[in-house]
């Protein structure tokens, strides 16, 4: 028996909300290890344009991408989460406050 409530919620979420992640920790690790986007793309066998699109939330990272990048940047499997799955929090300006 299919729970229609769960099915409707899942469909609604997928249509109205794309997940956007903050890759700042990944970018910091790249810098720490001396990699530019171009160098990392080559070392991880990922297209340069593809990596740029992924780092800018235009295209999602695949599991293979994450595994390859983690290997190049010496990120342990159990530590992948903060590098690839930190939700992006939009910064908003506080209006009406001095400063």
Features:
99 residues, mainly alpha, 434 Repressor (Amino-terminal Domain), 52% helix, globular
Please state roughly what percent of the residues sit in beta strands, choosing from under 5%, 5-15%, 15-25%, 25-35%, 35-45% or over 45%.
under 5%
CATH-defined fold name of the domain at 19-84: 434 Repressor (Amino-terminal Domain)
* Arithmetic mean of pLDDT: 85
pLDDT < 50 stretches = 10-16
**Structural class, from helix and strand content?**
mainly alpha
- Compute the number of helices: 6
Q: Architecture of the domain at 19-84, CATH level 2?
A: Orthogonal Bundle
Q: Count of DSSP E strands?
A: 0
CATH structural class of the domain at 19-84:
Mainly Alpha
Q: Outline, from the CA principal axes?
A: globular
Written account of the structure:
By secondary structure, the protein is mainly alpha-helical. The protein has a domain at 19-84: 434 Repressor (Amino-terminal Domain), CATH 1.10.260. The chain is built from six helices and no strands. Helix 3 crosses helix 4. The longest helix is centred in the first third of the chain and has 13 residues, at 4-16. It starts with a helix and ends in a 15-residue tail after the last helix. Residues 10-16 have low confidence and may be disordered.
Topology:
Blueprint: H1 4-16, H2 24-32, H3 37-43, H4 48-55, H5 63-72, H6 81-84
Helix pairs in contact: 3-4
Short description:
52% of the residues lie in helices and 0% in strands. It has 6 helices and no strands. It has helices at residues 4-16, 24-32, 37-43, 48-55, 63-72, 81-84.
